[in-house]
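Q: Trace token order:
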Amino acid sequence: MSVAKRHSASAHLIHAFDSPARIAKSGPRTLVRGKGAYVWDSDGNRYLDGLSSLWNVSVGHGRVEIAQAVEAQIRTLSYAPTLLGFSSEPAQELARRIAAWTPGSLDHVLFTSGGSESNESVIRLARIYWKLRGHSDKTQFIALTEAYHGSTTGAATLTGLEKFHRDFGPLMPGVERIARPHCGGCELGLRHPECMLACADLLEQTIERVGADQIAAFIAEPIQGVGGVIVPPPGYHERVRDICTRHDILMVCDEVITGFGRTGKRFGIEHWDAVPDMMVFAKGISSGYVPLGGVSLSTEIYDAFVDAGHDFALSHGFTYSGHPVACAAGLATLDILEREDLVNRAAVLGKRLASGLDQLRKHSVVRDVRSIGLMAAVELATPEGSSSLPESIRDAALEQKIIIRASGDNVVLCPPLMIEESDLDRLVDTIDSVLAATTGDPVIV
């Protein structure tokens, strides 16, 4: 497709999270096909998808099983609500399957169309839960710096990234923010383990300052994704769980990126001995094939809704909650994850990825390397007065037909769970070579 034709074709489409001026001038890369860990654009170029598109295409592109499941469901029953007393078999079965995957008593599922809707749901569900429990004043939330929870108004307020707040105010009131557990760049200026998990203790200090009778929940990604793949130290989430329990505050884990095998466990929080009261999911549940997300609730929370009696209606949900076609895709995705043992594969390949990325520390501009399973970040030091180095590395990798992401000071990787070892090595080798070409450092062999 010619540049002129490409610009004309995309002139009416708004491209989120990018510069409208840049898109208007240069146009987007139009992807037309995908297979396994690769995608092709309209000019015939083949790219290794080192980001699983948007952290989500975990089982790879072009899975016939998912396409067949979607087609069969459309032919059978294209739509049925999960509102007003109706449901469908795919929605019921997927909720059952997810309950079998999730830890503890997270046995009840409200479906949404994605992560932002799921985190909006957390806000409303937490508030109605406490109201039913007789604590109507428990409406506030505590979240972490640099967190990402979505871009709708409530979810964006929970998000701790300034660019999602700038120019979009006023934000939702009632959100307190505390330092994240980033040992490599501690916002408290401390060192682990001498710090004794001071970042976790900030949660308790904030609860005591604001008042536990005012706070509904603490929400965090078990491992921050957009914030730079920040893996908390041992004991962090256990300490948080204990604090929330003692102060009667809900613990919410946002597993939108980390769920369904990404970290080498079924869910990221399972790297710690802590079970949340609510778990948010999306992305990997359908491998991005159709929009799907949800919130898993503990039995204790769900029982409060049931115990409220027949006169109580849970006045929250969405037209497409539990869409049967989306749930059919989710069921097919879970089948692939289980049949191909992709959770354990992510753990095994994660060790290979970590070993390869560790070699990049020899580059003078590499501040840190962090990874868990098949998600990783290479933190770079941009020389003062120069343009963003992560963006330069991302662009140079794209010229080498590798898709990665620049996020703050980081280059972020998140390949499909089914990626071949040779492609995983190529991903690391390409970052090595473009770092060397950009900075003048030698290639690591």
